[in-house]
Amino acid sequence: MNDIIKIFDTTLRDGEQAPGCSMNVQEKIELAKALEKLRVDVIEAGFPASSPGDLESVKTIGGIIKESTVAGLCRALEKDIDAAKEALAHAASPRVHIFLATSPIHMEYKLKMTPDKVLENAVAAVRYAKKFCADVEFSAEDSSRSDLDFVSKVFSEVIKAGATTVNFPDTTGYAMPDEFARMVKYVREHSIGIEKAHFSVHVHNDLGLGVANSLAAIGAGADQVECTVNGIGERAGNASLEEIVMALKVRKDYWKKDTRIDTTQIYPISRLVSKVTGVKVQPNKAIVGENAFAHEAGIHQHGVLANRATYEIMSPESVGITRNEMVLGKHSGRHAFEERLKQLGLPVDPKNLDEIFMQFKILADKKKTVGNRDIESLVLGSSSSSIPVTWKLDRWVTNADASGSSMSAIRLEARDGGLREAVHLGNGCIDAAFSAINNIVGKDVTMEMFELGAISGSSDAQGEAIIKVSYNGKQWNGHGVSTNIVESAIKAYVAAINAMESDQRQGEEKNLG
Ligand code: KIV
Ligand code: ZN
User: Fold this and answer.
1) Are 443 and 474 within 8 A, CB to CB?
2) Is 169's C-beta closer than 6 angstroms to any atom of ligand 1?
3) Same domain for 405 and 336
4) Number of H helices, E strands in the chain
5) Atom 5 in ligand 1: which residue has the minimum CA distance?
6) Model-level pTM?
7) Beta carbon of 59 within 6 Å of any ligand 1 atom
8) Nearest C-alpha to atom 2 of ligand 1 is from which residue?
9) Domain count of the chain?
10) Is 470 part of a structural domain of the chain?
11) The pLDDT value given to residue 359
12) 284 lies in a domain?
């Protein structure tokens, strides 16, 4: 048994399957780089046969990532494995991940296959993948509702065929922790050749037990866990990466296991996932929620002031949250600013540094003090500049009064430098502004989700908008920050339109090529 627990991250695959969490290729690349920096062992980058976009993402990520294994998911079908072969061709450390269900309900109603056929297909698929990839994982989907002797037989045979990892998923989030541990122990004991393979678990959170079940499985001998940042994923999500990792770290005395994760990257990547997916983290979420390290009750505050360990079992710094010792403002220099960026562990592309510092100075002129969340927003906003700018906000004017009807005039600068202007009426100034933008870009873009909030609690706080738009059945996210709340919404809308335009242009270029 291994003392290192492998962290298999599936934010880009299972996480992306969550409603409203779809990401474009650029966003996936940005996240894959952050996952590599977090030092996850495996990045499941997508399901190559599911769409040309997914194949492209896995291919691009495979070509970039060097320190983590890059996995592509496949059904037990030759055409899926061929797609994974193409997608992983340039990966430094590729893994083919094949899944096939083993539970009676899935075999009868979904697959319409007998158990013998499932076994035969599983073995054939692993053999086929082994021809080009040494690292093959086999998942018995819905394992926790399967006959355990059958799963053990399938695992024994796929290991004989060359599988290097076998995965035991609680696909429907149905198992109870002690029950799941017993299942893992049983299957490990009854799978021939298991000592030659890693034993993985993949747990969903339908009953809120994703992390508990993953930890129980580790206690029973699993040495890989599949999880996602912020716990995003199908339905109620997957086991949360940050919770599993910190449970192992904080209670190392109990588990006596390690991971390779750089835990100081946990908070930055949580923010990045939230920004990219447009899905906010609940305030009381363990480890990364806004309140995870907040002490409200007087008695708690008193204790923490005397000794933090009275109510804190881990430090915010250990997960990458920096306490704000030094206030930044308009007199702060570049050195102090860069130092804060380093402390916050934010991913800054050096070519964007001048621009971010300039934005910081502009902001510091408008606000008395610039907090960590302000800086984080500046950086995360600038990372959307990896998305080519088709439209840039040049000017906006709007009016609002109690009648509800508003008029907004918007001027955008196009890629060719030309200025385009439109004026529109609407039900409120934001509705009017978005309609004016639709007029300029000439597309009837629909807004799917719109969240507006303040970055901090003060009255001069910046407004932050997260927007999801759709057009022709596809969705894109945009993020905007400004000291003016209306401007933050307009910026977010323009950012989402830029993501859409860039995606569509790439599609057209591919069709021409
Ligand atoms: O939940 C599940 O069973 C899966 C498999 C593909 C591993 O996502
Ligand atoms: Zn899953």
Assistant:
1) no
2) yes
3) no
4) 17, 14
5) 141
6) 0.84
7) no
8) 171
9) 4
10) yes
11) 87
12) no
Spell out the residues 6+ positions from residue 338 whose beta carbon is closer than 8 angstroms to its own: 353
Q: Are residues 297 and 416 in the same domain?
A: no
User: Do residues 449 and 277 make contact, with C-beta atoms less than 8 angstroms apart?
Assistant: no
Using the mean position of ligand 1's atoms as its centre, give its distance from the Cα of residue 141 in Å.
6
Both tokens of 462, joined, read 């910046």
- Over residues 115-138, the mean pLDDT reads 98
User: Would you say residue 384 has pLDDT above 60?
Assistant: no
* DSSP reduced 3-state for 41: coil
Question: What's the pLDDT band for 513 if we cut at 50, 70, 90?
Answer: very low
What letter represents residue 375's amino acid?
Answer: I
User: Beta strand pairing status for 165-170 and 136-141?
Assistant: parallel
Contact present, 281 and 288 (Cβ < 8 Å): yes
Under a CB-based contact definition with an 8 Å cutoff, are residues 268 and 34 in contact?
yes
> H-type helices in 402-468, by residue range?
429-441
Asked if residue 282 belongs to a domain, the reply is no
Residue 203 Cα, ligand 2 centroid: separation in angstroms? 7
Print the domain residue range for 308: 291-321
Nearest-Å Rg of the Cα atoms of the chain is 25
Q: Using one digit for the tens of pLDDT, what is the confidence trace for 453-477? A: 887 767 778 888 989 899 998 888 8
Nearest ligand, CA 238 = 2
CB under 5 Å of ion ligand 2: residues: 14
Q: Please indicate, yes or no, whether residues 65 and 148 belong to a single structural domain of this protein.
A: yes
Cβ of residue 14 lying under 6 Å from some atom of ligand 1: yes
pLDDT(132) > 50: yes
- Give the ligand 1 atom nearest the CA of 141: 3
